[in-house]
Specification:
It is built from seven helices and nine strands, in the order ββαβαααβββαβββαα. Helix content is 26%, strand content 23%. With 324 residues, the protein is α/β, with parallel strands linked by helices. The C terminus is likely disordered. The chain has a single domain, classed as Aldehyde Oxidoreductase, domain 4, CATH 3.30.365. A hairpin with a 5-residue loop joins strand 5 and strand 6. It is globular and about 60 Å long. The two termini are 39 Å apart. The longest helix has 20 residues. A four-stranded mixed sheet has the order 4-5-6-9. The protein has a three-stranded mixed sheet with strand order 1-2-3, with helices on one face. Strands 7-8 form a two-stranded antiparallel ribbon.
């Protein structure tokens, strides 16, 4: 209840596709609040004695917005929404793991998947179409797909006859030189709206790998936290204050819900190490969102993917595509 919160973000994406089925224009904008609890700004105790600041706070950056794809006309931007009052926002904001990037990647990679689905192109092949000169990124994406046993076809999958539908989704990102690709396999209960992540396969290229076991542990932790944030974690508040005050009102992933995790470590001893502490979390919400679309044919545009939001999306499907 007293902790700083990850700032809200809203992504707006536009793209244009040519006759060859390639994106030639990409316009991506992330609007978000700054971190009010950042270096150089008064912290909670300092505020109690009247400390104030003229600083806006730290922005969320622009990474994860699809800047690594080869697109002729390309813009990825981040706009900071300033708090309009003299006093700081009572909803104190700060960096959340891999600041800003899981949300941006969720928007960009799901939008990219949406374009691929509209063109009826396999999602992995559509990404490779825009990575022809990016050998390392392509190799990481292919490694994740091969390890996951990816079968080439467009999304979504054929409709399920039963209550539960299965799907797979892919997402890709580059953070400070570290390349990550993930394939998520999910099961969606079309009656209850519950999403279960069965397995996540991650390919990870961070240059020289110094400690393979340590890197695997970091990836495992990133996947678990990413699944938890994608399916469960949401701070709720009203005019009286923050209502998420304990593990009942702010649920996190339980041990029985942890998916199987497989990793492919790509070692580049000729390159300097670029880190593995945060990058793997970036792609998890997007991979899960794309897998849900593959399973049931609906797009989820807000995290977390609660049963209520999944059911609302399913119930909004056009007539003739009703859920089981």
């Amino acid at each position: 209840m007293w902790s700083p919160k990850g700032p809200q973000q809203r992504m707006t994406a536009r793209a244009a596709v040519n006759d060859e089925g390639k994106i030639f224009a990409w316009d991506y904008l992330d609007r978000g609040f700054p971190w009010s609890e950042a270096q150089g700004t008064p912290q909670l105790a300092e505020r109690q004695i009247g400390a104030k600041t003229d600083l806006l706070g730290n922005p969320n950056g622009v990474g994860g917005g699809g800047e690594y794809y080869e697109i002729e006309h390309h813009r990825v931007a981040g706009a900071v929404i300033a708090w309009p009052q003299d006093d700081p926002s009572p909803l104190r904001t700060c960096a959340l793991r891999s600041p800003g990037e899981p949300a941006r990647n969720f928007g960009s990679e799901c939008f990219l998947d949406e374009i691929a689905a509209d063109l009826k192109v396999d999602p992995v092949q559509f990404r490779l179409r825009h990575l022809s000169n990016s050998k390392r990124i392509s190799e990481t994406l292919v490694a994740a797909a091969q390890k996951a046993g990816w079968r080439e076809r467009p999304s979504p999958a054929s409709p399920s006859d039963g209550a539960k539908a299965s799907g797979r989704g892919v997402a890709l990102s580059v953070r400070n030189g570290t390349i990550i690709a993930a394939v998520a396999e999910v099961e969606v209960d079309q009656i209850t709206g519950k999403v279960v992540v069965k397995k996540v396969t991650v390919a990870h290229d961070c240059g020289l790998i110094v400690n393979p076991d340590g890197l695997r542990f970091q990836i495992d932790g990133n996947v678990m936290q990413g699944v938890s944030r994608a399916l469960l974690e949401e701070v709720k508040f009203d005019a009286s204050g923050v209502q998420s005050q304990n593990w009942a009102t702010y649920p996190v992933l339980r041990f029985r819900e942890v998916p199987e995790v497989e990793t492919v470590l790509i070692n580049r001893p000729e390159l300097p190490p670029t880190g593995g502490a945060e990058p793997a979390i970036i792609v998890i919400p997007a991979a899960i969102g794309n897998a849900v679309f593959d399973a049931v044919g609906v797009r989820l545009r807000q995290v977390p993917f609660t049963p209520e939001r999944v059911l609302a999306a399913l119930n909004s499907k056009p007539s003739g595509t009703a859920r089981a």
